[in-house]
Amino acid sequence: MRSFALASALAALSVAHAGPTATNKELPRQADSLPTVTASGNAFFAGDQRFYVRGIDYQPGGSSANVDPLADTDICGRDIPRFRELGVNTIRVYSVDNHRDHTECMNMLNDAGIYLVLDVNSPSYSIRRDRPAPSYNAEYLQAVFATIDEFQQYDNTLAFFSGNEVINHDEFSTRTAPYVKATTRDMRQYIAERGYRRIPVGYSAADVSDNRMQTAHYFNCGSEFERSDFFAFNDYSWCSPSSFRQSGWNQKVQNFTGYGLPIFLSEWGCTTNGRDFSEMEALMSDDMTSVYSGGLMYEYSMEENEFGIVEIDGDNVRELDEFSAMASAFSEYPAPTGNGGFTSTTNSVACPTTDSVWDLGEWGPSALPAMPTDALRYMTEGAGEGPGLDGPGSQNSGDGEHETAGASAGSPTATADPEDTGNAGARGVPPVDGAIFAITGVVTFFTVVGTLLL
């Protein structure tokens, strides 16, 4: 009996690990999915390893082209091999068509070891800087949620941006902040209600020194449901030849110490005196890793603003001198090992008060608009098909009238205590190394075999 049981166990093991039969053609092996990235304390983690954004901004043709580079394999297939040459682990895309499938390009990025940081807005579906109230409406949120639906399925979707440079130098542009923060809140709630993995949601701020810190504090104040998962900003203050101190980056590290959320640069790469990409040495050094989680160089393709490192003409790509300079810098300054001195707990900050620079109008320092009533059904029904890049647009669909959100707005049906804003566990902790479970499985197997031999 024992011999029969042992033979059966070994036979089952051999069947489980059998290769394809002689008549079945074995398909080329696809790379395993990248480990999902989570926000924990003031850092990102891929699996149980600290993750640094070492990337590039990518929107060939610019926003005026209205083209989704991740829905066309001719485009992404042309450029992904060059991303690998550069040594990047992340790309940022500013606009995608949420009506199309992105499986092939996302799989190609995954196979290349590359994550995506994605803006959920498009030129016709976004918060208008001059008329924010009417542009925050159900049609807008439907488009945002449809983008989440499409990209949440890919493990290499690293994070979503709820807005990009909506707040800038313009007078009264700060009055857009409550609507962008409400969108951030709504996105986080939608992800929770739909049962998706906790993909980080945050904001990409303009390179505006006058209101940078107020903006950062605003997106990290309030209840657990209102705060962002991270904060990013564009920074062109390091113009070579420069240094950590000469550029003023040392002061920014000091300003953000104790901020309590992951921070990274959503754009960097001053072109004033040419570029040697020496910023990477500082970004990957002990001077910054306790506060910053890397950044995205602006940008891949040469557009009207002339920040690109390649010139694209149809299927032809010409690498400029900056391409090899960037590849050299990324190779010379790799991501550090260890945890980089990150802070394991998260914390909120006080909302900035109204002054001559920071003015949120009728909303005051902390109040937010409630989600439009017509959008509430998406939480249970889903967003449905996205309108795509050629949709009619949403910016003038609302009447501009909004109720004030209650204290529990943004709370999904099952969540942590909203008062527990200092609990890192509420925003995710680095996952336990799965290797221990593999070892446990092997031990269990031999224990069973040993038992059968008794």
Q: Can I get a quick summary?
A:
This protein is of the alpha/beta class and 454 residues long.
CATH architecture of one domain: Alpha-Beta Barrel
Low-pLDDT sequence parts = 1-28, 414-426, 428-454
If you average the pLDDT, what whole number results?
Answer: 88
CATH class call of one domain: Alpha Beta
The number of distinct β-strands equals 13
Cα(first) to Cα(last) distance is 11 Å
**Radius of gyration in whole Å, from Cα?**
24 Å
Note the overall shape: globular
| Portion in beta strands | 5-15%
State the CATH topology of one domain: TIM Barrel
Q: What is the CATH superfamily classification of one domain?
A: Glycosidases
Considering DSSP H and I runs of 4 or more, what fraction of the residues is helical? Answer: 25-40%
The helix-strand sequence is HEEEEHHEHEHHEHEHEHEHEEEHHH
The main sheet comes to: 8 strands, parallel, barrel
As laid out across the biggest beta sheet, the strand order is: 4-5-6-7-8-9-10-11
